[in-house]
Amino acid sequence: MAENKLKLGIPKGSLQEYTLKIFKSAGFDIDIPERGYFFKIDDPEIECFLLRPQEIPKYIEKGKLDLGISGDDWILESKAKIVDEASASSPPFANARVIEVCDLKYAKQEIKKVKWVLAVPENSKIKSVKDLEGKTISTEAVNLVKNYLKKSKVKARVEFSWGTTEVKPPRFADAICDITETGASLRAHNLKVIDTILVSSTKLITNKQAWQDKWKKEKIKDLALLLQGAVGGEEMVNIMMHIPGTKLNRILKFLPKSPTIKKLIGENWYDIEISCKERETRELIPKLKRIGAQGIVEWPVMKIVP
Q: Which of 231, 239, 240 is nearest to 303 (CA)?
């Protein structure tokens, strides 16, 4: 009997650090060698490969990987035929070879989506995609832009950019299509956005061969559950506090979520525990203290599994 092994593609580059962080929170230790592209993970049933996110969808489609992490952008750019997990067995999607297992919702360094935008110089006369007729667009996502132009019924020259795309206009291109989180780099190069062509997040994807294998499917679903739980815990914290009984009803009115309440034996005091978004604590904790909460303790959430 062949050894059960899941071949997993980890994205190299901007997604790498946060991906490894999520795996750590999910309970997996990954040993990163100083050189090389083969990671060691403390699960003998998983084999890790460090690859560019642009390559992962195609390797999954061809069956060279069983599972991988990549963005919507590179999945579309690679032209991999993809379908979500719920529709994988439906006849209309019989030709789709790549299956989206779940949305992991993070970008480079945090839980958020990124945008692929069309941008031109601030002083450009180009105001919309229609003004790009006959013009030159520089981008790393050539297929993405070509599909967008086709839908917009605009004919323009799309040139592949090897990087530093924002420096291309106006000398080397009339416009660019580039990825952005905050827009700061575009503004620094005196560029303005004229349209958003895609909002992208990170996806866990597999192929039909792996999904039809009973052992691999179960392993993939377990891994997806843990990774989603780790992502869900990234923005959350737990808060525990002691509340005098005379203040209980007043405090309960503004807590962001339903708390767990325990009455202390023989005293008119309560232990209250809640989960909330970390960014809410900067206003919540001082307010709790003013009302009368004592012994307030905050600690991180590692996973949230519904």
A: 231
Map tokens 């030159």 to a residue.
Answer: 136
Smallest CA-to-CA distance from 51 within 33, 34, 65, 72 is with: 65
User: Do 297 and 241 meet the contact criterion of CB atoms below 8 Å apart?
Assistant: yes
Q: What percent of the chain has pLDDT over 90?
A: 66
For residue 139, give the DSSP letter: E
153-164 tens-digit pLDDT: 999 999 999 988
Dihedral (CA of 2, 221, 93, 12) sign:
negative
SS3 state at 91 = helix
Q: Is the pTM of this model over 0.70?
A: yes
* Mean confidence (pLDDT) of the chain: 89
| Residue 136 phi, psi dihedral angles, 5° rounding | -115, 130
List, in sequence order, every beta strand (DSSP E) within 190-288: 191-200, 202-207, 236-244, 260-263, 269-277
Q: Read off the pLDDT of residues 168-194 as tens digits, 9 standing for 90 and up.
A: 999 999 999 999 878 888 999 999 999
181 or 273, higher pLDDT: 273
Mean pLDDT of all residues in 242-271? 88
Both 206 and 104 in a single domain?
yes
Cα(268)–Cα(251) distance, integer angstroms: 15
With cut-offs at 50, 70 and 90, classify the pLDDT of residue 1.
very low
- Reduced to 3 states, what is the DSSP secondary structure of residue 233? helix
For 262, the domain range is: 236-300
Scored b (16 or more CB within 10 A) or e, 52-91 reads ebbbbbbbbbeebbbbbbbbbbbbbbbebebbebeebeee
In a domain, 305, yes or no: no
Same domain? For 91 and 29 the reply is: yes
Domain CATH for 176: 3.40.190.10
Check whether residue 138 and residue 278 sit in a common domain.
Answer: no
